[in-house]
C-alpha cells in the first residue's frame, strides 16, 4: 500500500490533535500565542498614545481621531479574515483542504484590493474625513499628519489581518504570534526614534506604525511561501465562483459590524466629547486605548477557542464544543474580574501616566475608567458567545451580538445621555451598553445550548461506527 504524502499525514495529525487533546490544554496552547499577539498589538497602540501625548493634548486627541480610521481598515481585514478563518477551520475539520486553500487565497487578494481602495479614497478626502471623524480645528493638523501614513499602509494591514486569522484558524497560533508580535515590538522601538530623535513629531509615530506593519506582513506571508502553514495562498487559487464570496463575507459579517460600529462609536464618542474641549477628547482617547489593551487578553483567549470550536464542530464533536465554551467562560470571567478590580483602584494613576500635567484630562478619564471597570467582567460572556457563533458559521446570532454593544445600545446612549447629564453621559454610555448587551445575549445562548445538548445526545456512543465507517471519536473525560 502506498504511504500517505507527508503533507496529508501532517494534516491528519493536526486534525487528530484538535479533536482529541483535552480542551483546556489545547485552548491554552492556542490562546497563549494569540494573547501575546493581542497584547503586543495593544501595547504598541498605547505606545503611540504615550509618546504622542508628550507632544501635547491636541496631539493626543489626534491619535483617538485616527483610531476611528484604523478601525475601518480593521473592519475590512477582520471581515475577510474571520470569515475565511471560520470556513477554513470547519473545512479542515471535514478534511477538505483544497477548498480551504481557495477560501484563503480569495480572502487574501480581495483584502489587498479593498485596502487599496481605502488608501485612494482616504487620501483624496483627507481634511473632510478627519473632521468627520471628530477632529477639532486644533486637532485637525495633527490628525492629517498621522492619518496620511496610516492610509498608505491600508492594503498591507487588511491582508495581514487575513493571514493572521487564517493561521490561527488552522491551529498555527505561534506562527501568527511571531508575525504580529515582531511588528509590534519594532513599532514600540521606532516610536521614540522617529518622534524625538529624528524630530518628526506625530508623523514619526505614523511612519513607525507603517514600517512595523510592513515587517509583520512579510513575516506572515513567509509562512505561506515556505509552506509552514496548512493552507496555501496563490493567485491561481482565487475563486472565480461568486458563491464563495458571500460565504466568506456573511461568515465574517459579525466582525465587520463589530469593527465598523467600533469605528462609528469612536467617532460618535469624539464628537460628543468635543463639546467639552480637547481635554475630554484626549481623556476618552486614553481610556479607549487602555481598555483595548485590557480586552485584548480576552479577545486573544477567545481566538484560541475559535479553531478548537470550528474543528470539533466540523468533525461532529459537539461535546467538546460545549466543554470548550464553558472552560473559556469561567477562565475569562475570573481573569477580567481581577483586572477590573486593579483598574478601578489605579484609574487616576493610569491616566497620569499619559497626561500628568493636565488635571482635567486625569479627572475626566479616571471616572470614565472606573465606570468601565464595573462592566468589564461581562465581556467574558459577550466575547466568547460572539466567537462561538462566528466560528460555527451562525452569522445571525454572531451579528446580533456584534451589533448590539456598539450599535443598538451604545449609539443611542452617546447621542442622548450627554444632553441630559453633560460629560457624565460621555463617561457612562459604554458601561451601560455593555450591561444591556450581556443581558440580551442570555436567551440566544440558552437556545443554542438547548439545541447543542440534543446534538450531543445523538452522538455515536463509545466504540460505535461513524457515518464514514471509522470508529467514532471517543467521548472525553473531564479535563
TrEMBL record:
It comes from the Bacteria. It is a multi-pass membrane protein. GO terms for cellular component: plasma membrane. The keyword Membrane applies. GO terms for molecular function: antiporter activity; xenobiotic transmembrane transporter activity. One of its GO terms (biological process) is response to antibiotic. It is found in: Cell membrane. Pfam families: MatE. Its main location: membrane. InterPro entries: MATE_fam, MATE_MepA-like, MATE_MepA_subfamily, MdtK-like. Keywords: Antibiotic resistance, Cell membrane, Membrane, Transmembrane, Transmembrane helix, Transport. The keyword Transmembrane applies. Belongs to the multi antimicrobial extrusion (MATE) (TC 2.A.66.1) family. MepA subfamily. PANTHER family: MULTIDRUG EXPORT PROTEIN MEPA, SPORULATION PROTEIN YKVU. This is Multidrug export protein MepA. The lineage of its organism: Bacteria, Bacillati, Bacillota, Clostridia, Eubacteriales.
